[in-house]
Amino acid sequence: MDLLGRRAEREAVEQLLTQARAGRSGTLVVRGEAGIGKTALLEYARETAAPSGFRVESSVGAESETQFVFAGLHQLCAPLLGRADALPDPQQAALGVAFGLRAGLAPDLFLVGLAVLNLLAEAAEEAPLLCLVDDAQWLDEASAQVLAFVARRMSAERVALVFALRDSGAGDDHPFPGLPALRLEGLGETDAQALLAAAVRTPLDDGVRDRIVAEARGNPLALLELPRGAPPAQFAGGFERPDVLSVPRRIEDGFQRRSARLPAETQLLLLVAAADPTGDTALLWRAATHLGISPQAALPAEAGGLLEIGARVRFRHPLVRSAVYQAATAPDQRRAHRALADATDPQVDPDRRAWHRGQGVLGIDEEAAAELERSADRARSRGGLAAAAAFLQQAAELTPEPAARTRRALEAAHAKHEAGAPESALRLLTVAAAGPLDALQAARLKLLRAQVAFHTTRGSGVPEMLLDAARTLTPLDAALARETYLHALDAALVTGDSDRGVLDVAEAARAAPAPPRSPQPQDQLLDGLTKTLTSGYAAGALVLRHALEAFRDNLLTDAEPDRQSDRWLRLACRNALAILDDELLYLLACRNVQLAREAGALATLPDSLRFLSITSVLMGELARAGELATEATAITQATGGVQLRHAHIILSAWRGDQTETTALNAITAQDVAFSDESTEASMAQYAMAVLHNGLGNYPAAQDAAARAFESPELSLSNLVHFELIESAARAGQLERAVETMKQFCSRARASGTPWALGMAARSQALTSTGSAAEDQYREAIAQLKHTRMGGYLARTHLVYGEWLRRERRRQDAREHLRTAHQLLSDMGAEAFAERAARELRATGEHPRKRTAQPTDSLTAHELHIARLVATGATSREVAAQLFLSPRTVEAHLRSIFRKLGITSRRQLRELPLP
Question: Quick check: pTM over 0.70?
């Protein structure tokens, strides 16, 4: 199709190719209605790229391929697999399992994405690479997610990606939101007339020509095809104007009319070709033989410009395929699918055979359903949850026996939930609920309804739903019942229900059955949380400690990791905060990130990174915290996940950045996804308390801390106690400060860690006077020196120095204020550092300003890469850890070297990094 008038669009493609040739990878999502010229623009890209040295690979989505896991991705990558040996072993394995080339555990979707990213980067080392994906709206879900991830993580590769995407009418509801997009509009009148003149060789009356141009609305395919399907008489009188039909629908109707005029045998052959999206010529003829169709039947379709049969079977346009298929009767559609199933080798392509067989069934068929269930198992083993769910759903629909249909519907619902399709999961649960359910199936159905509700609403009713499921599971599956009770406790804390609501859940969890085997770490965690919440912190702290030590020991053992325990590692980390054990906290948080990295679990890695970022803030490692939070944001953006802000807002608060902290708090408050009681909102209030304490705005700090204190999650973690005690004491609200201090000191005694005891002494000092206060300040500093909590040690020097100055002991005050200023400045806690500077100036000393460092010019991402390279890691090793390509790491290194004024990795290792 000609690209008349598409100058801006051609220039956009040319610019993309120029960037890729220069090592600045890029993506373009071409959008528009059917027939608007998207494929023509992709062909222009191909024709422009090939002569200039590009390697060009392509893939085409097909509507009937959407449930074949990684089908679109394999089509694109298959010619490049010879380079897979250059990938790290985990990436090779992930790609091999995903494409069905080797056996193994189902890979994480985004580890497959990293493998594809590096495969494309490897291919582009030899020559720049152009990847074209047409009809991307019909890619299978796994392929679309991987390609979106790759597009967002590419940076310095010689790769250009172009996706052609048919508009769905749903705004930005497509697989590639946020990527650079180009919308194709209709041709202008002059160009439309020129294209029409080329399509219709006979002279046209001006009025007829104008009517056709108006009818086509600038759609190039309409201008080419509508005249071909029109009776000659219409050229004399113009077209009728069926306003109810869109232009693509009218084009499709035109194709249907043209195919309907063909011989019956040709129509059936067209239908078989339309039902098979692979374009396999041999398969088409085998199926045709089953139906008794002769090869000559293809000639009228080819002569009519609807179909080409060569090395591949190609339709003139995807609308021809859909027009032919939709025009066929249901019995003929089933005949075509049965013929394709019979023609498909069950050893070579069992899944496609099962799918065609299922489509060919009228009513129910157990054998077809069983085949589809086996296909679902294969899809799941390759990491295709969405594909497995689709196969299971179809299997359930074909199952004649009610109990088996119920089982398959329930399994399909679980798969839909795991694949992130909650509405489909609920519909399947309705199907399952109608059939005969045994007791365990009924309990699992309740559990799944609760899990879907937790992930979609985070509503206050979710914990009770989980409790109901747990009670039902108790006599049936003790291990699952205990996990469900633990999930209910976690949900009660996360949803931000009242302390009473959390206590009610904890009371109910006391009825959990005994572990059916030797207690696992998650079993101990359930017991510890239940005891802590029902019997008090002092009674439960030791049980919680034993649980967390069990997680630690499980992580440090050389045995195969316990994946069930790993699922609860995030909750274990949060409870290490609750017992104020900085060593356990740091180890569990680091291992949580490490395990997610090793597994390539990019869906869960951002959450692990955010928690480690907050841990790093408390340790006073604000630069490191910034790197982690930035990485979490980048990965979430690349995977299309929900962006959570709590790590960034807590970091900006400790940095004393009033503008950013206030802005992030306002965004969180306005976000309808988070209620005022949610943990996300409460963390924002905690951050505001830290910010205002740093700025010395103690009434505002107390107000924010008091609101955060209402969160069961933050109250259990103890962090908000520190801010509330300091702000209330300094705001003159001594009674509130003392009340909170007493509660915390009781917890600190039960914990007994240096961090707990140090913060207890600090809290007592803030609410005391005279020699008692001094003894407690000294005790706090002595204890905190033996912890990882550098942020709190620095702030304790600050409040001690402030107290000494008010006691008119200037010399002593200067010592601690100087230490506080130095520590806080070095870590980047600017508001607290300025608070120390004000106090120093009040003693008559002018604090030295922090000397600018070369590393100050690095972004958080660059600092992260610099830190890893400084440890001796190669670019390939850094790339694997950060889910980048080695070439992107090298590009960042060049920027780092330029900013730091160095030329080698050795010099980088010699530089002090913050």
Answer: yes
Q: Please state, in angstroms and rounded to a whole number, the distance separating the CA atoms of residues 132 and 571.
A: 43
Residue 796 and residue 783: Cα distance in Å, rounded?
11
> Hunting for tokens 């590419």 — which residue is that?
154
DSSP bridge pairs for 29 = 163, 181
Q: How many whole angstroms separate alpha carbon 389 and alpha carbon 578? A: 39
Distance in angstroms (rounded) separating the CA atoms of residues 186 and 887: 39
CA distance 545 to 529: 10
Q: What is the pLDDT of residue 237?
A: 43
Q: How far apart are CA 270 and CA 289, in angstroms?
A: 14
pLDDT per residue as tens digits for the range 839-848: 999 998 888 8
How far is Cα 334 from Cα 709, in angstroms, rounded to an integer?
Answer: 63
Closest by Cα among 490, 538, 484, 491 to 512:
484
Burial readout 6-40 (b: 16 or more C-beta within 10 A, e: otherwise): beebeebbeebbeebbebbbbbbbbbbbbbbbbbb
3-state secondary structure of 163: strand
What does the alpha-carbon distance between residue 524 and residue 575 come to, in Å, rounded to a whole number?
12
Q: pLDDT of 264-293, one tens digit each? A: 999 999 999 999 878 889 999 999 999 999
Residues 608-622, mean pLDDT to the nearest whole number: 96
CB atoms within 10 A of CB 199: 16
Nearest Cα to Cα of residue 120 among 72, 82, 157, 73: 157
Q: How far is CA 564 from CA 443, 522, 560, 568, 575, in A?
A: 20, 8, 12, 7, 18
